[in-house]
Amino acid sequence: MIRTFTFRERSGVILINRLTVPHGVRAFVEARIPHVAGARVSSWASRNNPSLSCRPRGRYDICTQGEEWCPMPQATWHFHLVKLSGPAGLIHFDYVVAAPPR
Known about the structure:
The protein has about 100 residues and is mainly beta. Helices cover about 0% and strands about 60% of the residues. It has no helices and 8 strands. The protein has a 4-stranded antiparallel β-sheet with strand order 1-7-3-4, with no helix packed on it. Strand 5 (about 50-55) and strand 6 form a beta hairpin.
């Protein structure tokens, strides 16, 4: 399954980049401001990516990608969600760009 979508975010830093999937699902989301910036989160941990943490919660795995607080302009972000394998079920993606907390 592949889904592509866009939405507008205000300027700021990436505060949340999180993917919630049923246990056993392998999926990832790539987020991009074309020619400016990008971020990615996947549903499986990798020793090559120590800033990604995945934890089980009930029937789901919640994976959060840590991001540096680099300033992002107000822009239309382009998202590409790919489900590689696993059981049927909802995939939930949280992505928040805003001013950093004090």
